[in-house]
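Dear Dr. H.,

I hope your travels went smoothly. While you were away I took the liberty of generating a structure for the chain from your last submission, since the lab meeting agenda had it listed for discussion. I wanted you to have the full record in hand beforehand rather than looking at slides cold. The sequence, exactly as received, is reproduced here:
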Amino acid sequence: MLGCADRDGSKVAMSGEDVIALYESVSVLSRQMLMAARSSDWDGLCRLEQDCANRLDILKAGCPPLKGEMRLRKVRLLQGILADDREIRIITEPWAAEMPYLMNLGRSPKEAGALNEHTA
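The corresponding predicted structure, in token form, is as follows:
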């Protein structure tokens, strides 16, 4: 059994299979996040991101390294997760770049800058 910290910080005994199952669940969530981003389901993407973050917190808390075939499975899962993440970023970064404009109630960046200078 491997020991990993749960979300509340308490130690939970986990087998190598449990750790791989956790990585597999993150992989499934990252694929669902990609589908949400592709369909512009931003609320769904945010919910999935939170679910994914909760699982990653457990993994970050100190699961011991895996060996052999389990380690290779973990690496393959991480490669898929990173590929999904890269594609999600390609989709979301242009949208995120528009946020300052959207936050200024539709003012152009030049108008928003002038407004901010007068109100500062």
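Two observations you may find useful: The beta strands are 2-5, 11-14. The CA atoms of residues 34 and 87 lie 7 Å apart.

With kind regards,
E. W.
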